[in-house]
Amino acid sequence: METPAAIRIDSVSKTYAGGKLALDDVSFDVPQGQIFGLLGPNGAGKSTLINILAGLVVKSAGKVRIWGFDIDEHPRNAKRSIGIVPQEILFDPFFTPKEALEIQAGLYGIPPEQRKTDELLAAMHLTDKADAYSRTLSGGMKRRLLVAKAMVHSPPILVLDEPTAGVDIELRRQLWAYVRELNAQGVTVVLTTHYLEEAEELCDRIAIINHGKVVANEPTRTLVAKAQEKAVVVTFDQDLGSVPSHSCFENIRLLDERTIEITYRKDKCNAGDVLAAVQREGFSIVDVRTRDPDLEDVFLSLVSEKAA
Ligand SMILES: Nc1ncnc2c1ncn2[C@@H]1O[C@H](COP(=O)(O)OP(=O)(O)OP(=O)(O)O)[C@@H](O)[C@H]1O
User: Fold this and answer.
1) 225-307: which CATH topology?
2) How far apart are CA 238 and CA 257, in angstroms?
3) Contact at 8 Å (CB) between 57 and 51?
4) Which ligand 1 atom lies nearest to the CA of residue 18?
5) Which of helix, strand or coil describes residue 216?
6) Given the CA of residue 51, which atom of ligand 1 is nearest to it?
7) Which of 76, 100, 99 has the alpha carbon at shortest distance from 155?
8) Which residues share a beta bridge with 209?
9) Which end of the chain has fewer CB atoms < 10 Å from its terminal CB, N or C?
10) pLDDT tens string 213-268
11) What residues are paired with 233 via a beta bridge?
């Protein structure tokens, strides 16, 4: 059976007042229980999409369902089902972390005995700072407080917009450990990031957005497998009658009568195996070039393919 969607984005477009088309007919599902990465270059439309989920930007067209609730028909239920950690750090500097969480819980109408203030402060390693003014917190602590604020109403979905921008490695690790823990407890997580490695390490699935369009949406494993691919371009001394084949070839392309590009997976075989297989065809090789794409290349090629 198909996993129900935690978030369903259906033909969503957004044109800003000045005429900028920031999202162009975007559709995808975030499956329940996953850590879902939304990747894309600057200006791709990621924040626009997240702001639509947060109810901060009004879409121009399309439908959005959060935990099954249409954001136009059931905005309150939709809002209660999602916690959003914004990109920008904006706080009232005169509240303490404890007060900030209590106020936030109050906004969601959570009765005092059901609030999880102490638990959230502990999870975010902020217990020591519970009664300090927010303005005295470090950047990393402020960011952790934002995560805690997003979780006061125990939403089934947590969205983090560029959570590790400007954050040191130690804090990044802690943040990811907490994200993983929440996910293990059943929380669906969506995060936007510029760091492919980070998405690769954390996410079950990755969607790539560019110029307001979704250009890829695949399990991370599939995207990474593409990054595992290497290619050799081989030129022969005479025209090829037939293309060589071998079990370790992933794909083979004739570039011209004498040149072929063979793709193989570097975890399965090496360039030597590929060339030996080609030579068994009996032709002399006059030139060999290699290509070694990583996830960055896969990302760029997907982005440029669709833009072309
Ligand atoms: N309020 C606005 N009015 C007009 N144009 C906007 C507005 N907000 C964003 N845009 C434009 O919409 C496009 C998408 O912006 P958006 O902030 O969603 O991208 P992004 O993928 O989040 O980028 P980044 O990674 O830099 O945050 C950009 O061209 C941006 O300049």
Assistant:
1) Alpha-Beta Plaits (3.30.70)
2) 8
3) yes
4) 4
5) strand
6) 18
7) 76
8) 214
9) N
10) 998 899 998 887 777 778 889 998 888 877 777 888 888 888 998 999 998 887 78
11) 261, 289
Rounded to the nearest angstrom, the distance between the alpha carbon of 46 and the centre of ligand 1 is: 8
Torsion of Cα atoms, 299 then 305 then 306 then 308, to 10° = 140
Mutation test of ligand 1: which of 46, 85, 303 has the most ligand atoms closer than 8 Å to its C-beta? Answer: 46
Strand, coil or helix: 33: coil
Q: What size, in residues, is the chain?
A: 308
At position 16, the amino acid (one-letter code) is Y
Cβ pair 43, 57 in contact under 8 A: no
Predicted confidence (pLDDT) per residue in 158-205, tens digit: 999 887 766 777 778 888 888 999 999 999 999 998 777 788 889 999
Q: Per-residue b/e over 9-45, b at no fewer than 16 CB within 10 Å?
A: bbebebeeeeeeebbbebebbbbbbbbbbbbbeeebb
Supply the DSSP symbol for 155.
-
Q: Which of 238, 232, 272 is nearest to 253 (CA)?
A: 232
Query: What are the sequence ranges of the domains in the chain?
Result: 225-307
pTM of the complete model beyond 0.90: no
Any ligand 1 atom below 6 A from CB of 20: yes
